[in-house]
Every structure is written in C-alpha cells, then in structure tokens.
Model the fold of this input.
Amino acid sequence: MNTILNGGYEKVDAKLRRVYQNSERSVKVRNVNLFTIYFADQIKKEVSDLHSFIKKSGLPPGYVNEVSKGLRIAEYVILNDSGANLVNSLMKEN
Done:
C-alpha cells in the first residue's frame, strides 16, 4: 500500500492515521472524507478490505462507512485547491 505522497513513499494507511490524529474532533469525519476523495484512486487500487485498512490506520471501526461513502462519491467530486491544501497540511508530521 505504498503511494507517492509529499515527495516520498508512505503507506496510505499511515497518511490517513495522521489526517485523523491531526484533525480537531469536530471535523474528523469531514477530513477523513476529504482524504478519501483525494486519494480514492490509490485506495481503490491498493486496499482490498476496508475493515482491515481502517483498523491498520488506527481509526474507530465506524469510519469504514465514511471511507466507503467517500469512495462512492469521489468520481463525482473534484477537490478545489483549498480542500487539497487542507488534506496535505493534515498529513504533515507534527
């Protein structure tokens, strides 16, 4: 599950974990959805079991629904620059 992100290779589950951890409680769901939309192609290619992916990412099991939702709507959504910038900023190490 390696993907090129921010100039290097890192597992997409590690990136999702960081987005979740770096998000304020009130916007965690939104940010996970944005991440899923932003990386939908990679997730679809690299992840065969969403339950395992969410568990490996360290998110609560209920987030399987959020990631699944994001994957379904991703083909209809194009993130604007501010959405993409938000996702990239949340993936940075603290």
Notes: The two ends are 23 Å apart (CA to CA).
